[in-house]
Design brief:
globular
Length: 98
């Protein structure tokens, strides 16, 4: 899965990229295993506000014009990623049942 990562007020470190792969990309790749790699493109915007809260937006289009969007915020980056992945997984499972 290709995720374009955009950081606002935040430098995305290599360790953060690895965490995104582990917590978001790999689990979603498993759910979407029947789709070609070029069909699994998403964008993720990560914002760290002045209070140190991470806000993450995830945006993805799936075949059949299905749009997946999730947004979460949390003080801890890893927790925000886990919450985001769970929300996206719910939407993908709903899409697969249709």
């Amino acid at each position: 899965m290709n995720i374009q990562i955009i950081g606002d007020n935040l430098e995305i470190s290599e360790s953060n990229r690895v965490m995104i792969q582990e917590k978001v990309s790999f689990p979603l790749d498993k759910l979407l295993s029947k789709y070609d790699g070029d069909m699994k493109n998403a964008s993720m915007r990560i914002i760290k506000d002045k209070f140190g809260v991470f806000k993450i937006n995830f945006d993805m289009n799936l075949p059949g014009k299905t749009h997946i969007f999730a947004e979460t915020s949390h003080k801890i980056f890893e927790s925000a990623l886990v919450d985001l992945a769970q929300e996206v997984e719910k939407q993908i499972k709903k899409f697969k049942q249709e």
